[in-house]
């Protein structure tokens, strides 16, 4: 039985969570709705096809105010979907599908890297690192004048066997502690996973939308903070007071950012540029230990490789933030990039690339400290 006509009633413009007023006619469908799903007005959004409920995608103009974030994305919105439907919408095309998958794949990639490092399975680590190398090779080649040295450095980075077998490098003096490395991996995974969850479930309700957006921002901040741990820790391994100053400073700044972002009003689209400024300023703060570390580390034979990786990371993050703020390309052709190719998806990809570049740099730091010690 096709009862799709039951759901043709025009959505109310303002409040999708309004409880029915006393003069509303309570239809049999509403009675079904109430026992079905947490009081959400599903009948504005669902269609029944042969007994299977299928939720319709909406246009920008049909959205409740809290979902009107990007006016250049015109269609394919999920509105007030129940959690179960939102969960399974990961396998459906809508304007958040690629936002979910880009960071979910990034999360799985970092989970794999973490497991490989924990389990110390060099073969898996090498395989995953090959991906890192293929992304960064061109960026590195452009960066350094001494390309031969850089290439050798990169090969050493991704192929751990080269380090231990073919090169006549002195055996490790000691194995430097890994905890800053795992702090970075944990922070990256938290960011990527919370972002995926946010994009998947924020269509459920206004309350959940606001909560998940905050978690998403906390995730981004956590990733930025934790990214500083490996370079600062390993560069200033022999100078612990600089470790405390820089790690303390970036952690304090991150905590301030998190507290600021937890304010609900700052989660709205109006403050997009402000949020980007906060994130970027944390990044720029990192320039101080980066410049300091570069000077301290200038005689390190892996200097160019490290600079190439870290500059690639900065470039990826900056370009990604540029897309996020400018909402290019959808602003030039509203509606064309609703499903694929809009700015947020591009931003997500650059975030993963930036994290991978930083992962590569961290491996170089680890290898260097394992062999040189303090
Ligand atoms: Zn996102």
UniProtKB/TrEMBL annotation:
It is a multi-pass membrane protein. This is Heptahelical transmembrane protein 1-like. It holds the Pfam family HlyIII. It comes from Manihot esculenta (Cassava). The chain crosses the membrane at residues 98-118, 181-203, 215-236, 242-262, 274-295, 307-325, 346-366. Keywords: Membrane, Metal-binding, Transmembrane, Transmembrane helix, Zinc. It is found in: Membrane. PANTHER family: ADIPOR/PROGESTIN RECEPTOR-RELATED, HEPTAHELICAL TRANSMEMBRANE PROTEIN 1. InterPro entries: AdipoR/HlyIII-related (IPR004254). GO terms for biological process: response to hormone; response to sucrose. Zn(2+) binds at residues 199, 344, 348. One of its GO terms (molecular function) is signaling receptor activity. GO terms for cellular component: membrane.
